[in-house]
Specification:
With 278 residues, the protein is of the alpha+beta class. It contains four helices and 14 strands. An eight-stranded antiparallel beta sheet has the order 1-9-8-12-13-14-11-10. Strands 2-3-4-7-6-5 form a six-stranded antiparallel β-barrel. Residues 1-35 and 134-144 have low confidence and may be disordered.
Length: 278
């Protein structure tokens, strides 16, 4: 159970998330200067990925409406034909309905106008009974509360498999490992095509899980974020190498924490390869 003072504080966090999340995806405004860095916590720890390892190729841009669209998020390939991202990235904020499939693109390994592979959406899968599937406009998300943020995850099934190795998923117990004492907990890595450096992949390595909410259904982290990093993977960097353990869904400015949905919330969704019936 969550005590009332904590729940009240956490609802304020999610209210900030609801304001930030829309800006972070399909309606990111050019009015936000690159120098504002609204999701950077203290010192900017994000670094461009210079490593040519194929591990990073599974991360890509989720673009809405075409390659040059202003609708921008990040996603990670979890199977040759499936991309994990934030649900709000795929929903029209004016209507609350998903964008047309033909307008949703994934560019794996994007780098300064080039990419390793391109896929177009065949279908979208949301968590069961998720608020983002309904017709209510996402401008009402603030009233949806903690559960909406915890379930802000979706999978894009692509029209054809990509010749890219998927990102490995964390195994059972990832959340428990991340919530150990700081000296014992594996660090996190958040990778994304951040809004102020959209054309190259960057990552904050060594950030930490600060605390959880909703009995572990949400993670509050110290990972730096920015517009367009919504849907970006959060890896648990353990001894066996990085494993995808959470999806970044937003940032609460007032409390200076980034907010992610951990794998226990969406593992079944990630493992379900079926497209929903129309």
């Amino acid at each position: 159970m969550i005590n009332r003072p904590f729940a009240a504080r956490f609802r304020r966090l999610i209210a900030a998330l609801a304001r930030a999340a829309l800006l972070s995806s399909v309606i990111a405004s050019a009015a936000w200067s690159q120098t504002l860095r609204p999701g950077v916590i203290g010192v900017d720890d994000r670094r461009l990925i210079e490593d040519a390892s194929s591990f990073w190729d599974a991360i890509g841009q989720v673009n809405i409406g075409g390659f040059r669209s202003r609708g921008q998020c990040t996603g990670a390939l979890i199977a040759p034909d499936r991309v994990l991202t934030a649900a709000h990235c795929l929903v029209n904020p004016r209507t609350g309905a998903p964008f047309p499939l033909s307008d949703i693109h994934f560019l794996a390994g994007a780098d300064r106008g080039a990419w390793k592979a391109h896929g177009r959406a065949k279908c979208l899968t949301f968590l069961e009974n998720d608020a983002f599937r309904g017709a209510a406009p996402t401008s009402n998300r603030r009233a949806l509360g903690l559960e909406a943020a915890a379930r802000d995850v979706a999978v894009i099934t692509l029209e054809a498999p990509l010749a890219i190795s998927p990102a490995p998923l964390a195994e059972a117990g990832a959340a428990e490992a991340a919530t150990r004492e700081p000296a014992q907990a594996p660090p996190l890595i958040h990778a994304a095509y951040f809004g102020d450096r959209r054309h190259r992949l960057s990552a904050h390595k060594g950030c930490r899980l600060m605390r959880g909410g909703l009995d572990g259904a949400l993670w509050l982290t110290s990972c730096d974020v920015h517009f367009a990093s919504s849907g970006g993977p959060v890896f648990l960097d353990d001894a066996d190498g990085p494993k995808l353990a959470a999806v970044m869904v937003g940032f609460a400015r007032a409390s200076a924490v980034s907010i992610a949905a951990p794998i226990d919330q969406w593992r079944a969704l990630a493992e379900n390869a079926a497209c929903p019936a129309r």
